[in-house]
Amino acid sequence: MDYSEKVMDHFENPRNQGKIEDADGIGEEGNPTCGDIMKIYIKVSDNIIEDVKFQTFGCGAAVASSSMATELIKGKTLEEAWELSNKAVVEALEGLPPQKVHCSVLAEDAIHKAINDYRIKQGLSPWEEKEGKEHHH
Amino acid sequence: MDNAATTPVRPEVLDAMIPFMTHSFGNPSSLYDIAKISREAVAKARSQVAAALGAQPKEIYFTSGGTESDNWAIKGVCFANKNKGKHIITSPIEHHAVSHTCEWLEKQGFEVTYIPVDKYGLVNPDDVSAAIRDDTILITIMFANNEIGTIEPIAEIGKIARERGILFHTDAVQAVGHVPIDVVSMNIDMLSLSGHKFNGPKGTGALYIGKRVKLVPLMHGGDQERKRRAGTENVPGIVGLGLALELSVSEMKETTEHLKELRNRLIDGLLKVPKSHLNGHPQMRLSNNVNVIFEYIEGESILLMLNRKGIAASTGSACNSSSLEPSHVLTACGLPQEIVHGSLRLTIGDMTEEGDVDYLLEVVPEIVQKLRNMSPLTPQELRTT
Amino acid sequence: MDNAATTPVRPEVLDAMIPFMTHSFGNPSSLYDIAKISREAVAKARSQVAAALGAQPKEIYFTSGGTESDNWAIKGVCFANKNKGKHIITSPIEHHAVSHTCEWLEKQGFEVTYIPVDKYGLVNPDDVSAAIRDDTILITIMFANNEIGTIEPIAEIGKIARERGILFHTDAVQAVGHVPIDVVSMNIDMLSLSGHKFNGPKGTGALYIGKRVKLVPLMHGGDQERKRRAGTENVPGIVGLGLALELSVSEMKETTEHLKELRNRLIDGLLKVPKSHLNGHPQMRLSNNVNVIFEYIEGESILLMLNRKGIAASTGSACNSSSLEPSHVLTACGLPQEIVHGSLRLTIGDMTEEGDVDYLLEVVPEIVQKLRNMSPLTPQELRTT
Ligand SMILES: Cc1ncc(COP(=O)(O)O)c(C=O)c1O
Ligand SMILES: Cc1ncc(COP(=O)(O)O)c(C=O)c1O
Ligand code: FES
Ligand code: FES
Question: Aminotransferase class V domain spans which residues (chains B, C) (predicted)?
Answer without folding.
Answer: 2-360
